[in-house]
Amino acid sequence: MAKMMYREAVQNALFAEMERDENVILLGEDIVGGMGTDGGPEAIGGIWSTSVGLFGKFGPDRVIDTPISESAIIGAAAGLALSGKRPVAELMFADFIGVCLDQIWNQVGKFRYMFGGKTKCPMVIRMAYGAGFNAAAQHSQSVHQILTGMPGLKVVMPSTPADVKGLLTQSIRDDDPVIFLEHKALYASSGEVPEGDYTIPFGHARLARAGQDVTIVATGLMVGFCESVADRLAPEGIGCDVIDLRTTSPLDEEAILDSVEVTGRLVVVDEAPPRCSLATDIAALVGQKAFASLKVPLTMVTPPHTPIPFARELESAYLPSADKIEAAVRKIMAWR
Amino acid sequence: MQLSREALLRAYRQMRVIREFEERLHVEIMTGEIAGFTHLYSGQEAVAVGVCEHLDHEDKIISTHRGHGHCLAKGCDVGMMMKEIWGSREGTCKGKGGSMHIADVAQGMLGANGIVGAGAPIAVGAALAAKLDGGGRVSIAFSGDGACNQGTTFEAMNLAVVTKAPCIFVFENNHYSEHTGWKYAVGTGSDIAGRAEAFGMRVWRGDGTDFFSVYETMRDVLEHVRGGNGPAAVEFDTERFFGHFEGDPQRYRGKGEIDRLRKVRDCLTKFRTRVTGADLLADGDFGRIDAEVRDLIEKSVSEARSAARPTADDVLSDVYISY
Amino acid sequence: MAKIHPFFMPKWGIEMTEGTVAEWMVAENDTFKRGQTLCLIETDKITNEVEAEYEGIVRRVLVPAGGDPQPVGTLLAVFSDADTTDAQVGEFIAGFKITSTGTGSRASEVDAQRPAAPGSSSMNEGIKSKRAISPQALHLAKDLNIDLEGVEGSGRGGKITYQDALQASRRSVIPTLKGTAELAEQLDGFYASPLAKRLASVHGVNLSLIVGTGPRGRISKSDVMAMVRAPTLPAKPVNKADVVPMDKIRKVISRRLTEAKQNIPHIYLRTSVKVDALLALRKSANLILGIQASINDYLLLATAKALARHRDVNVQVHDGAIHHFPHADVAIAIASPKGLVAPIVHSADLMRIDQIALTTHSLIETARLGKLSFEDLNGGTFTISNLGMHGIEQFDAIINPPQGAILAVGAIMRVLCEVESGKACFESRMTLCLSCDHRAIDGVAGARFMTTLKQLIEEPESLFAHS
Questions:
Q1: Is C124 in contact with C137 (CB distance < 8 Å)?
Q2: Mean pLDDT by 10 residues, chain C (467 residues)
Q3: CATH-assigned architecture of domain C249-464
Q4: Residue C373: alpha-carbon gap to chain centroid
Q5: For A2-193, which CATH superfamily applies?
Q6: Closest residue of chain B to A28, computed from CA coordinates
Q7: What is the model's pTM?
């Protein structure tokens, strides 16, 4: 095990996979940075420092710094994938899917099906998502609810450095297109990462805390909040099963349902707005398949149905927090 | 003119297959047997064939919603394509794609595409792969005068220039983006190649109703691009004999326009006149090919009609490789 | 057409909740034009002029200038056009309720007494609430007489739902907590669901032995539970008996023991004897006599001598008669290939220890060969059965009729015993249990016999005394 930051785990996985397989190719805006400037290449190494050192090691043919052209980035990645490469495209901010959604949704996600299963499109689209930096409405969003709803794509949301490494490695080796969502507020978080080569299979939730009184389902940044809530409540004898989904497509239905069958109580925590979302999807799942196990109505902790505000006070009022989650758990525990 | 007799016969046959395929579909669609949207390529055959006769399966092309011609020219199987258009599970895409999504990656055909302008970025990616692999392979994005107005096409051209990708943007100007004229919709005074040139690549122009013009232009273009000089663009002026889609009442057409186009701008007639005029091929050669192609299309239609239909279970397959 | 314009305390900005009328620029019955300043309103941040957005007449000023702050939405004045009568204005004011001027309290306007939807019943008198409430919730509140004050509405705009009302009707409960659970290792390479991992660690199931049947080939709860249950659900156990017909001896044993246990009223007398002296004596006596007498032989001798002294125990019981014998014919229970046999040492009380040893040795050998004669087995006045060599501490034996009693001998054990003045030491002791036929032998008679026997064993020199 080695202590590593979330962003270092991204770089680490990219480096290892590029070294292992020459078909792995990176492309994105400023992933090298400094191209065409007096500062020269590698002045940046990705605005999240997730591709530091890769250009120097693997060169311009495999680390392709692109203009600000998201459609072209995703389209080019798709063309590379159809031509036998394993591209890893980076969208600087997940919010930018708006300008390249056609390529993600109509092209990448559908090739295999439209072409009758006769081709594959092994590519990864990495993107930084999430709020917490007062980046306001166009640079803070959690877009997984849009992408999870798109058949043909897999959607990965790692919450720890160890999961970043294992899941990104899996994403690159996977033969289907994968959306890899990195939470920007987690980049500086650190944790133990196993040495060497390993993958984490998709659709395999991580149990972050084990308890038998209430099931809390979360992803990404929200997982840490839920863990701290579980730790706060444990001394009172309230046991929280904190399920970190890891991937929202495929979804580990079994982990959720197994847990709810034990606890009979469900709190879904989601960073995305509450309508037609991952939270409602899980609520619907439990309503359909674990209704008989529920002791109390399930509850959701999500932001309101608004764009993400800018001011510090507003953003913190908007986002789910450990306090809000704790309040929801206490409320559900007090149900009569 | 250095084309061998065999090459000429083959070129004519390819164009004839496309024409017969499309003209037959035009008739069959009226019967209501074929579902969905179908966009026919009749009139533009010289472009697809003139370009693809230079390529083999290791070169990539990506097509448009009007993709049958490119598919056939790139070597997709006629019978399987017909079955696909009929929605059979024996079709090129098992009945899951239909007319607008025929693809055969093994043939270097990265798909017809239902989204206007979506193909160009993908072609750049394929070109980057070719560049990485070495070997002088190219990737070609077919676009129309409609797609040339899409931002994706602009992004793709710039990215190709920036990355020196061996990508060729072939603009088939058939003068109509759906139901709107090029003179209105292309803001650069109807000059598409000039626009591409502004992105920083060499451009060519040719007569898209003349196989020899297309073929010879492409020889120069390919020499440039295979030589590692980055991307290039070509604009071919051509004609669309049918509507935007089958069922289009074409009220935007001029009176007698189509009759006139079929008379003076038919690439097949032009080819035949020129070749027979130069005594390269005889009328009998054409007659033989025409009959052979008629039989081929007849056979493919009757087979498509009776081919196996997909089942409800087929809905669930081919989404993911593993899930 | 009468047109009445209510004039409310405005809401300027998301933070404003109340305001004060600083000054009225118009008075009742004044006519005003569009754009004319009507009043000045102060908030905690600003003072603002309010301009007329239409022309009209000031009909009534309800909140005079300079008073207390008024909540946003308070009716401050009523304006109208010229056609409106005083009566209409009065009616409007009477019917006005603080409501819907963008204060977000629109929901509170709904009168719970009004049927909330067409078709809802009119049984709702009795519950009065200004709060928005669903028809079913209102029914429930009435039926259960629920106090809706303080109920937090979870519906849109704070509307009280059926669920909210039901909750309000219930007493608060303390949930039964099951607490936290052990967290199974996550990055262990096993593709198993979290619950499966937890169950595996609880039940000690090795996940590497399981082939998963869950989604994507994953190990599920049921896969683990199948392993857990496996040992308790074997194929129907096959335990087929090897049927061995009873031979003659076994049949005799069987019949006699059954008769004995069914017909003889047994009485059991138990005592513990110290055997350290006997063990020591046996060693030197065997050496001196040049014999190999066993502890059993010494016990047999002691028993025979005690029987000779207690003829009321040395008996046989026959139909209605008790046969007292002068000498002890003591049977010894031996396990032989043909089962339990009890050959007899006749008149053992007359023998020396070396004779007894010789006799028992011969009988045991004969028994092992299965060659005991009728004479060897017939009669007897008493039996000794010793299971001590098998570690049995004590047991109760079944009398061997027509004998009157049997002695069950347990294992010799080292036990901690109290000796004089509270000190303790280890002693070798064995437990003896005498089964008597109570028809012939009284408890006291048996007890006396046992006292004698105990004395002979604990002071074994007397076995060699001339009797």
A1: no
A2: 82 75 91 90 81 88 89 89 87 70 36 39 50 88 86 87 89 85 71 85 85 86 81 70 82 82 93 93 84 90 94 90 92 84 90 90 87 83 93 93 93 88 88 94 94 93 75
A3: 2-Layer Sandwich (3.30)
A4: 60
A5: Thiamin diphosphate (ThDP)-binding fold, Pyr/PP domains (3.40.50.970)
A6: B159
A7: 0.67
